[in-house]
TrEMBL record:
Belongs to the disproportionating enzyme family. Keywords: Carbohydrate metabolism, Glycosyltransferase, Transferase. It catalyses: Transfers a segment of a (1->4)-alpha-D-glucan to a new position in an acceptor, which may be glucose or a (1->4)-alpha-D-glucan. Transmembrane segments: none annotated. This is 4-alpha-glucanotransferase. Its EC number is 2.4.1.25.
Length: 658
């Protein structure tokens, strides 16, 4: 059915892909039908299919401008689509907010950038020159003869905001894992502020955070920051009492603090921590209501007005109370970034944006019309998951994303760039395509679905400049060539992990392999800390939790010996330093980090877990209840960790400055 095949293409339903084995895979029509059905489209309804094809193809040529027009700031021209019989007529473009009017007596001499024939009429796309305009979003009205169209002009820079003038060193953390100075069982913004000062004093330029997204107050054990309640809101558990003005002279709060429960030394008890901290938050809020000055209440009202769209997604009983907690969290996150700036950090905080949200959270429920139904985000088959992966996160409908001129995605990016100096985007390939998982005749099936890449990329570039925020795209795995090229030309940092960068023989690639415009790490939250990896303790943990049996454990330990030797080979090639399998983990780690510090990558990130010589993993991929993911705490205050590593950090800074 030709019209259905056309709709597959226009709606972004993938046709083929190359598997990790190199195999060329073409999706079955039944698979593609199932994907389209998840978008609410009846694949047997010929009239509906024809109407959608017209709207997505020919219909786009029957109006002078689309709802959104992309304009490059360094070559500003507007693509206007017009019946060629009207080329001799006058044209006027008005941008009221900028007090700009562009008039032409005719369109004859403009460059033609495209054409389309419909009902024996030829339509031309012509390039209308524009004056220089500020980066951002500007409403426009165009008139040609008796036709008029409204559009939002997105004036976008060629590249994202960047600070690519020298090599920088940073540290990655899981904020909740920081040793809490006040014994409340979870790291908070005061602990982060303290770490900012320590990191800056040791020559670091940034701290890479875990996602700070809102989780589930009434289901506190749902601890994964990558399956959040809402990505546009912050997790109140990070609020520090010591940074909150409403903690001063608060007798109810002081009384409650005297009843503080004792926390554990290794893992966060989220039920206990959340229950107690929300009691404390209630004391803060009531104190604010009763004692706050007119000025502070006005500040709160201004915050609520500025963030009204994201706050409107809160699905709770008392929205003012929930909004108050968001206000406090934003104030404290902003304070941490201010401290970074005052201490001379060039970037400061780098936030982390998860690829999706939970299917029962406030983000999904408040915007469910933007999502597909019955499709989750996942990954195609790979060597570690031959059946593919289903991450259980609802997939956004690519056609619905354009609603209100992409208001959802714009506000999401803006919310996550606010109060920070950088944004890491988890699974950045999602702005081009995502693997959908869905049911097809009782069996799990899947295919790639494509998204409005140019528009989503434009939003990243515009918001990056408006917020003075660098952008890092986590591009691990299979990355389409056009995505890799676009990220590079847009000055979006790639994200390299040493563990995964190998040649066809399995040997680690030379440090010079890492691109200059990249963020390089030895590992991330899905890989065990170096100490645990080197000693094989991560394999022991898997056996303890019955994730592998004894035979599998022994096989993994033998394979690990090979990997360790390859790492030693890498260090030998880079530095001529001869280490052995019996060398202590800390010695090998420092040698490896010094090798990578010399790599061309402008951003080199070490994990605070490795500075703390942790052996327990933060997260074991593929597990949920089996292992206590996203709960493991650091063993000591960050000041002690940083002080104990001063000599090592100074060596890294020296190498980076060469």
């Amino acid at each position: 059915m030709q019209s259905l095949a056309q709709l597959f293409y226009l709606h972004g339903i993938g046709y083929e892909y190359t598997k990790y084995t190199g195999e060329h895979v073409v999706f079955d029509e039944s698979t593609r039908r199932s994907a389209l059905s998840c978008c609410g489209i009846d694949c047997t309804d010929t009239d509906t299919i024809n109407q959608l094809n017209f709207a997505l193809d020919a219909g786009t040529w029957l109006t002078l401008l689309p709802n959104v027009s992309l304009v490059e700031s360094d070559e500003p021209f507007l693509r206007v689509r017009v019946d060629e019989r009207l080329l001799s007529r006058g044209c006027e473009l008005r941008l009221p907010s900028l007090d700009i009017v562009v008039s032409r007596e005719n369109l004859h001499e403009l460059s033609v950038t495209g054409d389309y024939r419909f009902n024996d009429i030829r339509y031309l796309e012509v390039a209308l020159p524009l004056p220089d305009m500020p980066i951002g979003y500007h409403d426009a009205v165009i008139t040609v003869a008796d036709q008029e169209a409204h559009s939002e002009l997105w004036i976008m820079p060629k590249q994202c905001f960047t600070v690519d003038d020298k090599k920088r060193l940073g540290v990655s953390i899981q904020l909740y894992s920081l040793f809490n100075a006040h014994g409340l069982g979870i790291g908070d913004f005061a602990d982060l502020a303290s770490l900012m000062r320590e990191a800056a004093a040791n020559g670091m330029d940034y701290i890479l955070l875990n996602p700070l997204h809102l989780l589930f107050e009434h289901s506190p054990e749902r601890a994964s920051p990558y399956s959040p309640n809402s990505r546009a809101l912050l997790n109140p558990l990070y609020i520090a009492l010591s940074l909150c003005e409403d903690a001063k002279d608060n007798l109810a709060l002081e009384k409650l603090l005297n009843e503080k429960p004792q926390g554990t030394d290794t893992y966060i008890d989220y039920t206990s921590v959340s229950d107690f901290k929300y009691q404390l938050f209630s004391c803060l809020y009531h104190h604010f209501r009763e004692t706050a000055s007119v000025e502070r209440k006005a500040q709160f009202e201004a915050f609520c007005l500025t963030h009204k769209h994201s706050l409107a997604t809160l699905v709770v009983g008392d929205n003012e109370y929930a909004s108050y907690l968001q206000w406090q969290a934003h104030l404290q996150l902003n304070l941490c970034q201010q401290i970074a700036n005052e201490c001379g950090m060039d970037i400061g905080l780098i936030n982390d944006l998860a690829v999706g949200c939970a299917g029962d959270g406030s983000e999904y429920r408040s915007q469910d019309e933007l999502f597909s139904h019955g499709a989750n985000v996942g990954a195609p088959p790979d060597p570690w998951a031959e059946q593919g992966q289903n991450w259980g996160l609802p997939a956004l409908n690519p056609q619905k994303l354009s609603k209100d001129n992409f208001a959802f995605y714009r506000s999401l990016i803006r919310a996550n760039m606010e109060d920070v100096g950088g944004l890491r985007i988890d699974h950045v390939m999602a702005i081009r395509r995502l693997w959908w998982c869905f049911d097809n005749q009782g069996q799990q099936d899947g295919c790639y679905v494509y998204y409005p890449f140019e528009h989503l990329l434009a939003i990243l570039k515009i918001e990056s400049h408006l917020n003075q925020c660098v952008v890092i795209g986590e591009d691990l795995g299979v990355v389409p060539t056009e995505v890799r090229d676009a990220l590079k030309s847009s000055a979006i940092y790639s994200n390299g992990l040493f563990y995964f960068e190998k040649d066809h023989n399995g040997e680690f690639l030379a440090s010079e392999h890492f691109a200059s415009h990249s963020l390089l790490m030895i590992a991330n939250h899905d890989v065990p800390p170096f100490n645990g990896w080197w000693t094989g303790h991560d394999i022991t943990v898997k056996q303890q939790y019955s994730l592998v049996d004894e035979a599998q454990s022994n096989a993994l330990l033998e394979a690990r010996k090979i990997e360790k030797q390859r790492m030693l080979n890498f260090i030998m090639r880079e530095t001529s330093q001869q280490l052995t399998l019996d060398t202590e983990a800390s010695v090998v780690y420092q040698a490896l980090a010094c090798c990578l510090a010399a790599a061309p990558a402008r951003l080199f990130t070490i994990q605070i877990d490795d500075l703390d010589q942790q052996i327990l993993p933060v997260n074991i991929p593929g597990t949920d209840k089996e292992y206590p993911n996203w709960r493991r705490l650091l063993s000591r205050p960050t000041q002690q960790i940083m002080h104990s590593q001063q000599s090592f950090l100074a060596s890294l800074i020296s190498i980076r400055n060469q």
